Amino acid sequence: MRLRFHKSLDDLKEKLLIVAGMAEQAIQRAVEAYRTRDLSICDLVDRSEMAINRLEREIDQMALDLLAMEQPMAIDLRFILAVIKINADVERVGDSAVNIIERVRDLQAYPAVDLPIDIPRMANLAAGMVRKSLQSFIEADAAMANSVLSMDDDVDKLNETTYYALLNVMKEQPQLTPQALDALVIARSLERVADHATNIAEDVIFWVQGSDVRHHMSVVDGSRR
Known about the structure:
Its main location: cytoplasm. By secondary structure, the protein is mainly alpha-helical. Helix content is 83%, strand content 0%.
């Protein structure tokens, strides 16, 4: 009976990693679509989003069935709860990719311009956080998950720099306001991807250590890190 239960946990983990890989790829494709203005890439992101949504529902159902039938305790219970929460964050990473391609489609109506921002760098940082948080999940490594939390500050700073750069563009070159606004939404979407990676890392820490570190609160003295 326990062997079957642990096989089910392995299946749950494997399916979550599949959908997480799809979501990470969707973000990379969406940023490539922004860089190249290639609408065929946008169509790929749309199709992957539908698959991500379907897998999200399947994973949730698998997790709920295990909770109902096996009534797990301790670390097994925390694992299933973490999977449910990570699954939701992964689906929202896919949503962020869709938000980006919607802006890419909108940009087709305007001339291409070279804005003083670095969206690909921001995307690499955010996608790197997603990869590392998932690697910490694969390896059940709370220390690795904890290192993801500090990476969020880099993305936040870059997002802030991007915001003020685009604000200046809109002030000094108002004719570029549509392109700047779309870029602003894309930067915000990438900042949200980093937030979801942070949530995943926090869920890994909860699973492995039983510690609630949400909102970046220290488990030692309750202070904000």
